[in-house]
Amino acid sequence: MIIQYTSFRQNYLSKRLLFLLTLSFFFISCSHNNIIETGHIERHGEKNPHGIKLTIGNNVPSIVSDYNSRYSTFGSIRSRGRHTGLDFKAPIGHPVIAASDGRVIRALYLSCGGNTVYITHGRDKKGNYIGTGYTHLDKIFANKGQLVKRGETIGTVGITGSCASGNVPHLHFLVFKANKKYHLGCAYISKNHRKDLPCKGKRMNPHEFWYDGIGMMSCFEKHKIYTNKMRARFTIPVECLKKMHKVTNTKLNRN
């Protein structure tokens, strides 16, 4: 009888341990938001912070912190001031792609931005250099000096860098304008001063630079022919889902 009780107790404890391990794995998965949310912008109760009316496809990974927003990716007030880019929410390892043709001018690790890639896309009509930045990457697949094509994978979504939220994997996407090519991109002071990037370029509203027009957020389409004259106009910098449905000003997308 004692042997049977001991066996029963061991079996019970083993099942309970397995249940707790499964539950822990579930919560860890949820905390990293492995399900791709698409087609909306999280406002955290805030009105449109930049004033541009947006059209976003249901297949576009959702924005959890818009340009000029006071709120971070997890809804708290930003300690460093208003947001200077767009935060696209996606699981760790989701492909990050070049927003247009260009040349990689930096691919490195920064204390704030983590794994970071900066690309120059040439000049606008006034002679200013236009560039894009991709930060908090999990992995970098591009090298300094490399020519990249629109839609080419340059890295994966992550949560690297001291300025990233550890619970919300996302791509922090920036658009820069500068008089000199190497003034594109910047970073907060790092421990390695040789890697400091002073903010000499101006950080722009990405919604003014979409390929289909101001506020028209469109995904990269593999078989579409993109005009070379539009290199300074961008498609979504993360891989989109295949299904396309356009929505404007829904309850989740208060523009």
How would you sum up this structure, described in words?
The chain has two domains: 1-31; 55-247, Glucose Permease (Domain IIA) (Distorted Sandwich). It has one helix and 14 strands; from the N terminus they run αββββββββββββββ. It is an alpha+beta fold and 255 residues long. The protein is 12% helix and 25% strand. The protein has one helix at residues 2-31; strands at residues 55-57, 63-65, 86-89, 95-97, 102-110, 114-123, 129-137, 139-140, 147-148, 153-156, 170-178, 202-204, 216-217, 246-247.
Give a brief description.
This protein has 1 helix and 14 strands; from the N terminus they run H-E-E-E-E-E-E-E-E-E-E-E-E-E-E.
The tally of structural domains comes to 2
Radius of gyration (CA) equals 21 Å
- Give a quick account of the main beta sheet: strands, pairing sense, barrel closure: 8 strands, antiparallel
Class of secondary structure makeup: alpha+beta
Low-confidence stretches: 19-33, 244-255
Multimeric status of the protein: single chain
Q: How many β-strands, per DSSP?
A: 14
CATH homologous superfamily title of the largest domain: Glucose Permease (Domain IIA)
* CATH architect. name of the largest domain: Distorted Sandwich
The overall pLDDT, averaged over residues, is 79
Q: Termini, distance in Å? A: 70 Å
Share of helical residues: 10-25%
Strand content: 25-35%
In N-to-C order, the SSE pattern is: HEEEEEEEEEEEEEE
Number of helices: 1
Fold-level CATH name of the largest domain:
Glucose Permease (Domain IIA)
Global shape: globular
Report the CATH C-level class of the largest domain.
Mainly Beta
